[in-house]
């Protein structure tokens, strides 16, 4: 019998996206279904979801339901749809906490919602109630990042439930830098037994509530999104963000599984966002895409000039400050630079200044534009990801698939996917550097420029990248094995010394 997985996430493509978590939550459940697992995806029913486009429909009989948030009862109802191109059922938790503009932050101020903790209490309790009302018994509860960890202790309230009893929990760490920290006055909202919040308790962290820590302590098995990141987060406070001790104590329960990408959506041979299609065997369309990209952004086209690109959050984690420090020297070397993203206002201001000073070399778009993101991946020659840390990263994999050569720092998933170019052997698919600093980064950029001036080297680099397999097929098999291991551990604890009865 196929395992039934309840997959909880705060965002999922195509319904709501802020970061890479949404890409994983929108693609992995579909691939798991192809490997004989039954998956129910549970996400918040945000106001911004296009209900007509994605076929959401209200589930009858859920309008009168309530869940506890602290000492109050909060009403909720359920909407449902099928994840596109799959049999995955999606449950949308709806109520006043998600009937507002914005996903995590207040759009007008950019600050985090002040009732954030209440929102995740509400989501976790309602998600379990929704799963309890499904037709099939749940085997695995897959929790993703701190927004979902409260489902682990709340699950104990269903210990004797016919569909939620004896469920194993698997907790995925997508980014340890966002932990869900709340000060102690918020504790009553959780309505948890005191032991969870006392010193050394699962959710206690130096006098605060730490939702991420709770997941690390309580889940049957832990996972993160690349093998290298799994090692890094145990090694130092730089990567562990204060939780490295907890992670070391559970090192035997932690697996690193590299994310995949949706190879149906990200495919230069079929991508509807592109003016020309191409593949590893016939890459000629890439130059047409480069010309189209520059025309769209108002930059002059010159095949002799390399285009460097960046897509993503304008944040310190992504090494945007490193790009800004190195950009004058890069422009002096004669490159063009395009960037798509939004984030910290000071970074946007500095980029706007570069656009004013070098309008024929720099273009910046401060928004989320999916079509432009695809065109950039196809039209750029090099992709910059000089991250301080990078749990997995997806854009470097998109870039490799599109024949755009990545220039990355050797950290996390970047180290697991980008192999440094060796001109003598023709091995490698990108350019890497180690120490986080302007000079090491510029040295990698300089090596990229040398390769650009050698057409044979660029053809080999692009072919190496485009031949890589970053589909979800392999990771899905690893997740299936991890789920079975988590279920085995849960059953061993529930029935020590003997077989399950």
Commentary on this structure:
The structure is a single chain. With 501 residues, the protein is α/β, with parallel strands linked by helices. The chain folds into two domains: 4-260 and 473-494, Rossmann fold (3-Layer(aba) Sandwich); 285-466, Rossmann fold (3-Layer(aba) Sandwich), CATH 3.40.50.2000. The protein is built from 17 helices and 19 strands. The protein has helices spanning 20-34, 116-132, 151-154, 187-190, 211-218, 227-235, 237-240, 244-249, 285-297, 320-332, 345-357, 370-379, 395-401, 412-417, 438-452, 455-466, 473-494; strands at residues 4-8, 38-44, 57-58, 65-69, 72-82, 89-94, 140-144, 168-173, 181-183, 204-205, 208-210, 221-224, 254-256, 307-311, 336-340, 362-365, 382-385, 405-409, 431-433. The strands form three sheets. Strands 1, 2, 3, 4, 5, 6, 7, 8, 12 and 13 form a ten-stranded mixed β-sheet that branches. Strand 17 (382-385), helix 13 (395-401) and strand 18 (405-409) form a beta-alpha-beta unit. Helix 9 crosses helix 12 and helix 10 packs across helix 15. It starts with a strand and ends in a 7-residue tail after the last helix.
């Amino acid at each position: 019998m196929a395992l039934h997985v309840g997959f909880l996430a705060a965002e999922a493509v195509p319904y709501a996206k802020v970061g890479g978590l949404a890409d994983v939550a929108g693609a992995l459940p579909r691939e798991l279904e192809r490997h004989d697992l039954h998956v129910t995806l549970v996400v918040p029913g945000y106001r911004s979801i296009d209900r007509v486009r994605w076929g959401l429909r209200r589930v009858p009989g859920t309008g009168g339901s309530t869940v506890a948030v602290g000492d109050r009862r909060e009403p909720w109802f359920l909407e449902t749809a099928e994840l596109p191109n799959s049999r995955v059922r999606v449950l949308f938790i709806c109520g006043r906490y998600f009937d507002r503009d914005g996903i995590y932050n207040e759009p007008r101020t950019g600050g985090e919602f002040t009732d954030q903790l209440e929102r995740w209490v509400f989501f976790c309790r309602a998600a379990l109630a929704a799963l309890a009302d499904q037709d099939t018994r749940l085997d695995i509860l897959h929790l993703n990042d701190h927004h979902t960890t409260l489902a682990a202790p709340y699950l104990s309230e269903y210990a004797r439930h016919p569909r939620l009893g004896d469920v194993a929990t698997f907790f995925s760490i997508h980014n340890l830098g966002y932990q869900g920290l709340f000060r102690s006055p918020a504790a009553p909202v959780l309505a948890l037994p005191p032991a969870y919040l006392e010193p050394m308790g699962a959710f206690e962290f130096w006098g605060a509530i730490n939702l991420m820590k709770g997941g690390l302590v309580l889940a049957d098995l832990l996972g993160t999104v690349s093998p290298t990141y799994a090692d890094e987060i145990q090694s130092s406070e730089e990567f562990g963000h204060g939780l490295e001790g907890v992670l070391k104590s559970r090192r035997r329960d932690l697996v690193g599984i590299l994310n995949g990408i949706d190879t149906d959506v990200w495919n230069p041979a079929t991508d509807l966002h592109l003016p020309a299609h191409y593949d590893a065997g016939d890459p000629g369309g890439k130059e047409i895409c480069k010309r189209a990209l520059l025309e769209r952004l108002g930059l002059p086209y010159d095949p002799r000039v390399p285009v460097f690109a960046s897509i993503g959050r304008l944040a310190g984690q992504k090494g945007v400050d490193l790009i800004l420090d190195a950009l004058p020297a890069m422009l002096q070397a004669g490159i063009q630079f395009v960037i798509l993203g939004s984030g910290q206002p000071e970074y946007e201001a500095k980029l706007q200044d570069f656009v004013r000073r070098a309008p024929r070399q720099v273009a910046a778009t401060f928004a989320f534009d999916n079509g432009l993101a695809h065109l950039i991946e196809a039209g750029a020659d090099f992709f910059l990801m000089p991250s301080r840390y990078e749990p997995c990263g997806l854009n470097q994999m998109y870039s490799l698939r599109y024949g755009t050569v990545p220039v990355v720092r050797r950290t996390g998933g970047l180290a697991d996917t980008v192999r440094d170019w060796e001109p003598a052997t023709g091995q490698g698919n990108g350019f890497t550097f180690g120490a986080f600093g302007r000079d090491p980064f510029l040295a990698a950029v300089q090596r990229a420029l040398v390769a650009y001036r050698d057409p044979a080297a660029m053809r080999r680099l692009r072919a190496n990248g485009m031949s890589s397999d970053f589909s979800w097929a392999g990771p899905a098999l690893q997740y299936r094995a991890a789920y079975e291991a988590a279920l085995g551990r849960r059953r061993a604890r529930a029935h020590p010394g003997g077989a399950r009865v």
